[in-house]
Amino acid sequence: MTYQQQLLPMEKVFRDPVHDYVYVQHQVILDLINTSEFQRLRRIKQLGTTSLTFHGAEHSRFGHCLGVYEITRRICDNFERNYPSKVTGDGGWDDHERLVALCAALLHDIGHGPYSHTFEHIFHTDHEALTAQIITSPATEVNQVLRKVAPDFPQQVAAVIQKTYPNPQVVQMISSQIDADRMDYLLRDSYFTGTNYGNFDLTRILRVMRPYKGGITFAMEGMHAVEDYIVSRFQMYMQVYFHPVSRSMEVILDHLLERANVLYQSHAADAEATPHMLLPFFNNNFTLQDYLRLDDGVLNTYFNHWRDSRDQILADLATRFLDRRPLKSARVDQLTQPLLPDLRRLIEQAGFDSHYYTDTNDSYDLPYDAYDPKMKKPRTQIELMQKDGSLLELSTVSDLVRAITGKVSGDQRFFFPKEMLSTQAENDLFKPVYQDFQRYILNDRLILPK
């Protein structure tokens, strides 16, 4: 029996709060889970700063990746049982594709770094490129496991994640507008944040999912389950992912890392608190091994050191982040955008460096987007299959989805120190500045003062 075919003597299970059990049957999957690169994901939170808003959101990328694997496994089981390929090219499921789909599902997020999106912004890393590098680099344990299957198997797995794999069925399992990745993180994030917005009928969606020559489609009778998923996704973005406090903490984290980098580059950093494991990133010259050494705990340890920095801005930002002291924010629109320079001037007058203590942050998302080939990155649209085998795009038959198709949701916010809203500063030198600043804010929005 080849390594590719090798099954465990008895399937292994992981208890999971979302899926009950995650079933592992292949030796290669268990070996991948046991690699150092995959175990690192236990030390990286799935939602970054969101746990500072929803305190239960302490779950890791490790659990999410297991969940995506489990959903993909169930999809493969359904396809093999109900839609097996009988003739090459007939649009059915070829179960020889199972292992590459399962490995891609398991490893799809392995390139994420600590506080990943903020870290990427500061240090210009790309978690998708790093995922492919971890999979294809001979230096990683992940690559050594995958090569036991076949010499070119790591490249096949990376191709699924990079969306260049020749079988669109496999790609769309992992990456489309309704895929194993999104389905797991909506359910998982909803569970751990203590919200119900992300709940939808996963069992029904998997039941109506089916392969065809162009990828994956859904039976027409499953339209309402798909609608429910689309609405759940919309609600999670509005209520959880775009929450102003989480975004505020991301702003502080972003400026904290930026300040540390600036001090290092100007040789003004405290020698005793030098972040040695971050220096390759400050110098823009890091290796894959440098990257894999990082996790949330490494960054938090440096933040703790920086509390005692001689640099007041670095020390204050570190304290604000660790002690959860978010910036306040107000919504901005085209009419009030020109006010921002005046507001930054007032913040400077109150003693804050406006570069580090203010920011604008955009959070927008499309709940559903019909395919547009002119887009830079066109999305795979959701197709419904009728009884005669013909396909209809979801928004053409769903009034609910059509109402939100192409509608951008979200907002732009201006972030500033909470002190600017002080009303208790009777003896404060800056009381007139605070009062002037507050004329510009009403009901969580910037306004034109009268």
From TrEMBL:
Q: Gene3D superfamilies, from UniProt?
A: 1.20.1250.30, Hypothetical protein af1432
UniProt-listed Pfam families: HD, HD_assoc_2
State the source organism's domain of life.
Bacteria
Task: Fetch the InterPro entries from UniProt.
Answer: dGTPase-like, HD/PDEase_dom, HD_assoc_2, HD_domain
Residues covered by the HD domain: 61-186
Task: Please state what the protein is called.
Answer: HD domain-containing protein
Q: Where is the signal peptide?
A: none
